[in-house]
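Sample pair:
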Amino acid sequence: MTEITEEIAHINGVPEKLVIFLHGYIDCAETVNKIIEKDFVGCLENCAVHIPQAPLQCEIHERKRQWYSMHRFDPEDSRKTVPEMKECAAVYEKMAPGFAEAFQYLNPYIDGLLNEYQLPDENLYICGFSQGAMLALYTALMREEKIAACVSFSGILAPALFLERHHKSAPPVFLIHGDADNLVRFQAMSFTRNRLKKIGCPVKTHVIKGGQHRITEDGIAAALKYIRKSSCL
């Protein structure tokens, strides 16, 4: 059975909130930790921040990780090259089994942390970048109880049609995306916003001007402000 056995954890004070940050595809927990440790993690008081390591070795880089195989569902990387947003969304729709499999091992990990800190879902924030952002959105909508919020860096709601039909809750969501993103197209932000609003999620957005496919200082600052404002940290 696949399970999460590696993580980087930061505990600031007595945790009243739990923040989980999911790294991207061809990525790892250590890389994300270096980016967010000082200006994000270090600024959240009375909070536990956990950065789990995806348990699957990346299919195209043996030293990196993945939450699920992208090439299994999109071997030609057509999601990046198809001209229309609806075609791109259709590619991600095919990845429903991958998200479901990842949810099966991520969800118990989250339950374990909430139990460890004796916190309810309403004190939980799930963040993620790229593939991690997609899984964060999927998990936030599929958990039985409504979480505090989800923060997506350069993500897309996927599989959108499945989630519209089967979501369990509709938590607040903050979408952060660069308008020069060359891997997950910028149009994914408006697509995701519209689909989330249809589901009933309160949605806020932040555009990184000239931002490419990465976690930027501007994005980190926006995410920190959003979490602080929504949680009064």
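The chain has a mean pLDDT of 96.
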